Amino acid sequence: MSFLNKEVKEQLNKYVDGRNNAERLGIVELVAQFVVHDLPTEQNKEDALLYSKYYLSTDRGKEDLRELYLPALSWAEERGGEGDDDES
Fold first, then answer.
1. Residue 76 near residue 34 (C-beta atoms within 8 A)
2. 51: in domain
């Protein structure tokens, strides 16, 4: 069950899309998946993923994005893909 209503999700997605070019959007998606991949299943991963993408798209999140990119890339390579959490 989602804790975010449809309007909030649309606003967050619009912000994320507006702040990132295509290349950076891919990096944001990868790092966000890395950040939420080990959340317990009872947590709402969809909302957490969206919040993570939002934060990583902000000016304050840029540094974390840089620091987490290489670990996220290694994590994705170990999983044999782009970090898609549906395979776990």
1. yes
2. yes
Sign, CA torsion 59/73/49/7 = positive
Q: What angle do CA 81, 14, 17 make, to 5 degrees?
A: 45
Which tens digit of pLDDT belongs to each residue from 9-35? 999 999 999 999 999 999 999 999 999
Q: What is the pTM of this model?
A: 0.82
How many structural domains comprise the chain?
1
Q: Is the dihedral of CA 17, 22, 27, 29 positive or negative?
A: positive
For residue 58, tell me if it sits in a domain: yes
Q: Which two tokens stand for residue 51?
A: 């919040």
Range of the domain at 70: 6-81
Answer yes or no: is 86 within a domain.
no
